[in-house]
Design a protein that fits this description.
Blueprint: E1 6-11, H1 25-42, H2 47-51, E2 55-66, E3 75-85, E4 90-98, E5 101-114, E6 120-121, E7 153-158, H3 172-181, H4 185-190, E8 191-200, E9 209-217, E10 224-231, E11 237-247
Antiparallel strand pairs: 1-3, 2-5, 2-8, 3-4, 4-5, 5-6, 7-9, 8-11, 9-10, 10-11
């Protein structure tokens, strides 16, 4: 019998850390998302399983709140479970902890997409066997994220071959990486994300260039930013984010 809550332990490796010896925020997110994929795979709902049914699964929304940052060599456990279901999206929540308590909480929503039409399919046709545990680690109704009111910073990044996932488009964590790279260096070197909210809205592919724009909100502390990532060639919107930062 497969438990409703899936537990994924991992040890923070040398390649996972930044210059301060703490796990990199994007790597932390990647571990969280990997736990979701592993749990789905145990139910026969891995992406490769879905391909055989003419569909795939993509991340639509993601929201994580960081409490503490694990260090190199530290043992961490991710708990994840399906927490809700709507006609066109499924909700999954996460708790990340070590022996001292909670490190992070997160929630997410996922779409099933038809491979031919690239349009969302009804969730119940594919996830009917996945039991729900109706509790939320981070309550969020996934309201729309606000658009930028101005452009304080704009950077461009190429899409590398290594950015492409099994769906043959830019993988979710790359957008978060490009967004964080656009934050001013005084914030990057002296602060860490306290929360990251993401709305994935479009696809980028190998050979594209991604424009990453940010607007700093309020100008005070803690630092908060709105982010917009788009395809540089035609300004097709790819991702909206909102981040807040806390000083180390």
């Amino acid at each position: 019998m497969i438990d409703a809550i899936y537990k994924k332990p991992f040890i923070v490796r040398n390649v996972d850390i930044d210059s301060r010896g703490l796990i990199h925020p994007v790597t932390f997110v990647e571990h969280i998302l990997e736990a979701a994929g592993e749990h789905a795979g145990l139910r026969g709902l891995a992406v490769t399983d879905l391909f055989q049914r003419g569909v795939t699964c993509v991340l639509s929304r993601f929201h994580v709140r960081f409490e503490r940052w694990p260090k190199w060599g530290q043992s961490v456990t991710i708990e994840t479970w399906p927490s809700g279901r709507q006609p066109l999206f499924a909700v999954r929540d996460f708790i990340v902890a070590d022996e001292a308590g909670v490190l992070a909480v997160a929630t997410s929503s996922w779409l099933i997409v038809d491979l031919k039409t690239r349009r969302p399919a009804r969730i119940d046709e594919y996830l009917e066997s996945f039991p729900l545990l109706e509790k939320r680690s981070l309550p969020d109704d996934f309201a729309s994220l606000p658009a930028l009111g101005r452009e304080d910073v704009r950077l461009e990044f190429p899409v590398f071959f290594s950015d492409i996932d099994i769906n043959r488009h830019v993988t979710a964590s790359v957008y978060i990486h490009r967004a964080l790279e656009s934050v001013p260096k005084d914030i990057l070197f002296h602060s860490r994300p306290a929360s990251i909210e993401v709305n994935f809205r479009g696809e980028a592919f190998y050979g594209d260039r991604i424009a990453s724009r940010i607007e700093r909100l309020d100008g005070g502390e803690p630092a908060r930013f709105l982010h917009r990532l788009s395809r540089a060639a035609d300004d097709k919107e790819l991702t909206l984010l909102r981040t807040s930062w806390a000083k180390l």
